[in-house]
Amino acid sequence: MSLDKVKHIVLVLSGKGGVGKSSVTTQLALSLSLTGRSVGILDIDLTGPSIPRLFGIEDAKVTQAPGGWVPVPVHAANPAAGIGRLSCMSLGFLLRARGDAVVWRGPKKTAMVRQFLSDVLWGEMDYLLIDTPPGTSDEHISLAETLLQKAFPGQVAGAVVVTTPQAVATADVKKELNFCVKTGIPVIGVVENMSGFVCPNCSECTDIFMKGGGEAMAQDFQVNFLGRVPIDPQFIMLVETGRRPVYPQGTEVNGHGMSTTDSTVYDTDEKDTSTLAEKYQTCSLCPRSAPCGPWTPDGMARCHRATDHEITRMRPHSVLPSVPRHSKTCPDLRLLIRVGHAQFTRPWDNATATSPPRLSTPTHPISRREAAEVAPESKRVLPSSTSPVYETNTGGAVAYDDVPRYGFWTRMGCTPESFKRRTLADENQLNKTLKPRHLHMIAIGGSIGAGFFVGSGSALNRGGPATLLIDFSIMGVMIFNVVYALGELAVMYPVSGGFYTYSTRFIDPSWGFAMGWNYVFQWAIVLPLELVVASFTVGYWNPDINVAAWISLFLVTIVLINVFGVLGFAEEEFWSSILKLGAVISFMLIGLVLVLGGGPSNGIYDEYWGARLWYDPGAFKNGFKGVCSVFVTAAFAFSGTELVGLAAAEAENPAKALPGAIKQVFWRITLFYVLGLMFVGLLVSSTDERLLGANPFINVAASPFVIAAKDAGLNGYDSFMNFIILISVISIGNSGVYGGSRTLTALAEQGYAPKLFAYVDRAGRPLFSTMLILICGALAYITLSSSGPVVFDWLLALSGLAALFTWGSICLSHIRFRSAWAYHGHTLDEIPFQAVFGVYGSWIGLILIVLVLIAQFYTAISPLGVDGVGTAEDFFKSYLALPVVILFFICGYFWKQPGWLRTANIDVDSGRREVDWERINNYKAEVASYPAWRRILVFLF
């Protein structure tokens, strides 16, 4: 937590813009610094970050250190002069120019506020002043929630509320006081700014904006009134020009000459090199050769030419009707924070301030030693990769050019410290470290596993080669539309636990609850299934070794992969997908040669083979019932395709990487599933007895890929395909841990699961969610008992149709999103990535899913090989997922009871990613200039 070393946090609030909140923050910071305190200013007034201008450091550049941003120093500590260090951080440093507008919606502003709280390295700090935006917007709520939840007791001192005297201002500022009451932020007091103007010539006080409104408001709310601050041209000149203000010749106030001689007028740029705090400290009525007198016991400076009552400057204006300049000359604005807050006089307030880290520039880069001072090795943390990725140009930000080299285990997030809970705004945030290559491979090869390599053999046996091709093609059309709908939603709303959150947001929170838990159960069952398949796969070479040993070995392997978090999952998926895709491509090439009769003489494909198996034993098997029975196998084979949308929440830049990854799904469906299974149907007979097995998903010898390799007489190729199957099933098991844990974490964050599962450690791992899914992997040992296969069949039935409900929910969410999008006045041009067939594609996908569910219902009532109606056991083994989903929905309804969301009530704005339309339009213009062949490639890939 970057605020851990900050002793006191003071919020400067106002319910209305233009009341001088930033100038009060500036004076408070300078005055505290002049008492020797170390002070930081966090300028989160995103509507108008003016702190850099007030301090004259607009051209400063932000330094990126290993643990986050280094605040920009205003001046270093000078213990001899009793001046503490002063530094600040502001969005103004990240803008290209002063006049750039911050055109962000609420979610992005909120994310930026949280990033400022978590990623700025303040170091040891006595006071942190937070200059907030006017009003009571999302930024305020996020700031209040984060500080009140994560700050240690007494750290948040409270709020200084700034207003001007007139009623139009106090009416709005009252809302700010109400906000403090509702959020539990203590109010230090009210400052009435711009309260009167004292003429430097006649000393008469003119109440330009009336007088007393702030004091009356403070009385109404029973909070402290801290004082009035007049309009002071000298302070304005000081912050605008950096010069010591002077008065023209002949000016007198209270009988004292205010004018200065030519010798006392200094050129700031050439002669006056003192800091802004020193200029603020020195009485402007005195020439530099005659400095102010010593400090008085109450912390006030005594000017040798000042009258007695001038010592008490910065008190209510009514007490000082004829004394000008008292707003700027007060050297210690502790009056604003002492009232009612004894903790501001704690012993550590007098601690010696340390010098701030200097600013790193291209000509004077920050050194390794100085970086260690900013973030000592014992306390240093890795840069927060969970912070939101912003698409705006960060202007003059300077990259840290001498990054210390961390050890391997630190970089991998495997140190004891990395398992501790995350703090501050990114507490429940996952890492955003997935690269485009990871997303592409997850999309194109992530779900190729036992369903494709092994389950396709059972499907071939039940339906024949034509049925195998037709059913997988239909499911391919369905999954194509599902993934594109998911891609559109994920680019717009890249949130953790995407499928569940989309259902909650666009359909019905109860249905979202059901879909979330359905998805968790699906993957919790898939993991032990894949462990069993992997164990039987190894048994292909050596069946004498106990299966339990292999289950234990593979379970430990998956545990080790997940210790490395999302990068462990991503790298494993990347390389295993390359192996799987390479194996499928090689099989298709070899299959083409075998079909044409180019096989070795010791195999059966040494002469033209062609499509003979489509004639004998035939293209179809078991008629219409056979066609219906293959759909569930195809659905199982495509399970996991949607993981690319779930992974988008942990991608570095999902808006850029996800569309390209989504396009890869078309090629996986076309090239690998359809063409690969076409060769399976050409080479392996549907009546081959080796295709049969007690459980079609775990009988590895029943894989048509292994059978074709054996029949071809290709020595060692069957073992190679078996090895690929082993890699594939481990990969799917790993995907099960990833998908189940992320969805469970999202459920816990929304209160739909125990809060324990919302725990995310400092390396971005959803620790307890991952542990629960891994524990479910122990169910694989059930197969070792005599009744194990029966129990395992029932567990498998829980996840048999689960994917279909998930896909149907994605399509329906997309349909409802488009409907609400149009209802709220948006156009399709505002959607950066659109599904190819739009809402019609989602309707096609949803209708196909309903038809598949009907077909499976038919085969559940009347299974293959049964004339008439089957048993209740057969039905529930095929359709158990439906009553489970209904049970989840009922539980969710009684828990939340919101019902079906009306279109008018669907929120399409909050949480929506801000889009860099300039970049997108430039890219579209660039693509439009390409030749036709290149535009086709861009469209396809």
Cα Rg: 35 Å
Estimate what percentage of residues fall within beta strands.
5-15%
Mean pLDDT: 73
Counting structural domains, the number is 2
Number of helices: 32
Helical residues, percent: 40-55%
Tally of DSSP β-strands:
14
Structural class by SSE content? alpha/beta
Describe the sheet with the most strands: 8 strands, mixed
Unreliable stretches (pLDDT < 50, length at least 5) are 260-270, 283-406, 424-428
**Multimer state:** single chain
Q: What name goes with the CATH superfamily of the largest domain?
A: Amino acid/polyamine transporter I
Keywords:
eight-stranded mixed beta sheet; 941 residues; two-stranded antiparallel ribbon; Rossmann fold; Amino acid/polyamine transporter I; alpha/beta
Folded structure, characterized:
The protein has 32 helices and 14 strands. With 941 residues, the protein is an alpha/beta fold. The protein has two domains: 6-350, Rossmann fold (3-Layer(aba) Sandwich), CATH 3.40.50.300; 430-940, Amino acid/polyamine transporter I (Up-down Bundle), CATH 1.20.1740. β10 and β11 form a beta hairpin. α17 packs antiparallel against α24, α18 crosses α24 (717-749) and α26 packs across α29 (872-879). This is Amino-acid permease inda1. Residues 438-896 form the Amino acid permease/ SLC12A domain. The chain crosses the membrane at residues 439-460, 472-495, 516-541, 547-569, 581-604, 624-644, 665-684, 720-741, 762-782, 794-815, 835-858, 878-895. It is found in: Cytoplasm; Membrane.
